[in-house]
Sequence to fold (272 residues):
Amino acid sequence: MDNIGYTTAAYAASLTLIAVYAWHLWRRLRRARHQQRTGGGSDAGGRSR
Amino acid sequence: MDAARIGGVAGVAAIPVLAAGLYLGLAWAPPDAMMGNVQRIMYVHFPSWIATAIGYVVALVGSGGYLARRSPRFDWLAHAGVEVGVLFNVSGLVTGSIWGRPTWGVWWTWDPRLTTTAIMLIIFTGYLLVRAFIEDSETRARVAAVVAIVGFLNVPIVYLSVRWWRTLHQIQSSPETVAPEMVVALRVMMGAFALLAVFLVARRYELARLEAAAEAAEDRVDG
Fold:
């Protein structure tokens, strides 16, 4: 029962999910802000879906 | 205080609280008498559901607000809440599945609590798909708001499922029945995940605002 591997896997899975989403969100935000400053095309900001 | 500022404060606060929670949960709190160290999964599993609830409640408020006021700000808020809710919904299901294997002997079972949480994930993933398929921004916001409000009806069912049906999943614990150190570790991690949820919702709201501005500019160019 006392298998630390499961605990490690659960923490790694949860924190990785959050970190990957936060990183992806940060990239999308940076691109959208850049587009707003430069008035770039739809490729930069994407549509609000 | 605007969304960007709220997000910034929550994001900065989340880092030390999460670090403290990880220390308390992984090193300071004692192992469970029956499950040993596997029980420490609780400190990421349950906080994931707190953050899920924050996301979906924000979505409910945003959706209700949109239908009442027709302000796009509410739609951005609802969209942000659902996306962050789905993220933590996945985290809750994955960590629960990993915890289920050593304690129940299975990665997954069609237990009422597990099934209703999976249905909740499907509904709110459907919300994101609905948004992707509707071109007109007002129709999209209106339909999405209805989906979110109808989908939210499942949230109290998830909470009460362990009381309504005989389930493999335990009912809600009381702080009086567990070691005080476990309660402290759990509450700190709940705080950390709540701050992370607020941070991510605020940032996603900001992105939705920028995307809407880009969409409006694009529509003006298209004529």
Notes: Chain B has a mean pLDDT of 94. Chain B touches chain A through 46 residues (CB under 8 Å). Residues 171 and 212 of chain B are 43 Å apart (CA to CA).
